Amino acid sequence: MRRLSVGLMAAALVLPLTPALRAQTKTLPGEMTTVTATVEAVNASTRTVTLKGPKGNYVDVVAPDSVTRFSEIKVGDKITARYYDNIVLRVKHPGETSVDSDSTALTRGTGSKPGATASTQRTITATITEIDPKVPSITFSGPNNWKYSSRVEDKKALATVKVGDKVDITWTEALLVSFEATK
């Protein structure tokens, strides 16, 4: 999920940078993505489930030990996964403390079949390290050697910030997984 969140954050930064910076705080809601697949195989020894997607593609998913109802998953079950994310950008005032936090939550389903909702929220303070009005693009750096560069579609957005400005970036992801038993 972390790789996906960085990619989604990239898309969010490319399009709406101007309003986010002018408004000081801006929420960029993501889209809800829903995928339904069929369980084609279950390997109990490796805790691997082979899923067949709606376009006929196959994906192997390894269930972590925290999936306590793994043994209840059967060939033919339908699994529905719903993914949602959003991003909040906030220009920091000079002198504000930097942040670097990460939190996760897991709520197990209580229905007759396995299921769960997992979420994660990450907040970092990033520094604008480069602005190139010719491309136009912007480059950020953050904790743990995090670096990110992206095109900016609205050149006017770059005029509202300068190298050295700090921005808090918070992205939240949620994944809801549910099973439907075979009939």
Tell me what the structure shows:
By secondary structure, the protein is mostly beta strands. It has one domain (2-32, 81-180). It has helices at residues 2-14, 17-22, 155-158; strands at 25-29, 33-43, 48-52, 58-62, 78-91, 100-108, 115-132, 137-141, 147-151, 166-180. Strands 1, 2, 3, 4, 5, 6, 7, 8, 9 and 10 form a ten-stranded antiparallel β-sheet that branches. A hairpin with a 6-residue loop joins β6 (100-108) and β7. The longest helix is centred in the first third of the chain and has 13 residues, at 2-14. The chain starts with a helix and ends with a strand.
Count of extended strands:
10
Q: What is the terminal separation in angstroms?
A: 32 Å
- The whole-angstrom Rg is 20 Å
Annotation field: number of helices: 3
Q: The biggest beta sheet, please? A: 10 strands, antiparallel
Structural class: mainly beta
Q: Which shape, going by the Cα principal axes?
A: elongated
Please render the helix and strand layout as text:
Elements: H1 2-14, H2 17-22, E1 25-29, E2 33-43, E3 48-52, E4 58-62, E5 78-91, E6 100-108, E7 115-132, E8 137-141, E9 147-151, H3 155-158, E10 166-180
Antiparallel strand pairs: 1-5, 2-3, 2-5, 3-4, 5-10, 6-7, 7-8, 7-10, 8-9
